Amino acid sequence: MKAVAGMVLGALLAGCGTINTVFRDDVVTSDKLKEAKSFCGAVPRAYSGVMYDFCLLNGEAPTPSRPGSGPEIGFVGIDMAISAVTDTLMLPYTLYRQHNDGSIEVVGG
User: Which Pfam families match (predicted)?
Assistant: First the structure.
């Protein structure tokens, strides 16, 4: 049972917007938003996980990283709530990065 719970937690964290924007390279975030044909040109670093999920929901291309409808949209809604909490905890770091590096640009998005 612990192994299943660990795998579920790992899967949730792998798709978490905060993990994708704070702990991964900016190019990865940009590429995922381009793949989803998001209308976002940049993602601010403060509350970047919530904004990342919002951009995925408002993209036009249904992809594995961008839900199309039904249960996937519920998953992104849950991820937005989890990302909001995680983004709040990461706020001192993300504000520092926003000041020094600016927003995450979505090149070609």
Answer: DUF1375
Q: Which two tokens stand for residue 11?
A: 């899967």
Residue entry with tokens 């917007």: 17
First to last CA, the chain: 42
For the record, the structure tokens of 103 come out as 């927003």
Q: Which residue shows structure tokens 């994708």? A: 20
Asked if residues 80 and 15 have their Cβ atoms less than 8 Å apart, the reply is no
Q: Are 45 and 65 in contact (CB under 8 A)?
A: no
Q: Rounded to the nearest 5 degrees, what angle is found at the Cα of 88, between the Cα atoms of 61 and 31?
A: 25
Type of residue numbered 41:
G
Question: What tokens does 70 get?
Answer: 């039904």
| pLDDT category of residue 77 using cuts at 50, 70 and 90 | confident
Average pLDDT, the chain: 81
